[in-house]
Amino acid sequence: DAGVIQSPRHEVTEMGQEVTLRCKPISGHDYLFWYRQTMMRGLELLIYFNNNVPIDDSGMPEDRFSAKMPNASFSTLKIQPSEPRDSAVYFCASSEGQGRGRTYEQYFGPGTRLTVT
Amino acid sequence: AQSVTQLDSQVPVFEEAPVELRCNYSSSVSVYLFWYVQYPNQGLQLLLKYLSGSTLVKGINGFEAEFNKSQTSFHLRKPSVHISDTAEYFCAVKRITSYDKVIFGPGTSLSVIP
């Protein structure tokens, strides 16, 4: 398996523009997580999905952020409008579903480094 | 709610010396425990985990950790570090009974000095 795939790897945009980050989880994984990592705040969970349904979005900073998972193999995180304080590395991770023998391990993608000027 | 404390934000250590990265957690219910490693410009990857059974857990790259329930600790150790171990290390907890929301600690930056 290719692992969790994220695109783009780097994104530079101007304040006020819309930004869309993309994620393809590992095939067969039922959970998908979006994280944001900054020096000041560390690793923050933004939202996670189970079987394409958002379970907990309490970490989404404000209404400018939205996330969707239209099917089991694709998710997006959108920021509209973007602001300089959104600059961070955004990670997507996936995990197996419930069941005997599951390891609860989260598999992380390589991240998208977002810079908003 | 659960929380994770990593007492050292930065740990410098000479190559081939032993190292211990400390992790303490707080939870009113039973938890699973994890250590993840993040190499520069990469995502996190699992080093080891404690789900049940033996409190001494062995992971990849020669790392091990010991779960101490009475002290609510899960310290990570390696007897002899290599330059390639330079990375950020995250301790994490997850409630046994919840959906898969994992709480990560703030991280410890391990720098191995040649």
Overall strand count of chain B: 12
Measured by DSSP, the beta-strand proportion of chain B falls in over 45%
Poorly predicted runs of 5 or more residues of chain B: none
What distance separates the N and C termini of chain A? Answer: 36 Å
Helix content, binned percent of chain A: under 10%
- The geometry of chain B reads as globular
Distance between the termini of chain B: 41 Å
Overall SS class of chain A: mainly beta
Poorly predicted regions of chain A are none
Mean pLDDT of chain B comes to 93
Give the total of beta strands of chain A.
11
Largest sheet of chain B: 6 strands, mixed
Order of helices and strands of chain B: EEEEEEEEEEEE
What assembly state would you assign to the polypeptide chains in this entry?
heterodimer
Q: What does the largest sheet of chain A look like?
A: 7 strands, mixed
If helices are DSSP runs of H or I spanning 4 or more residues, what is the number of helices of chain A? 0
Rg from Cα of chain B: 14 Å
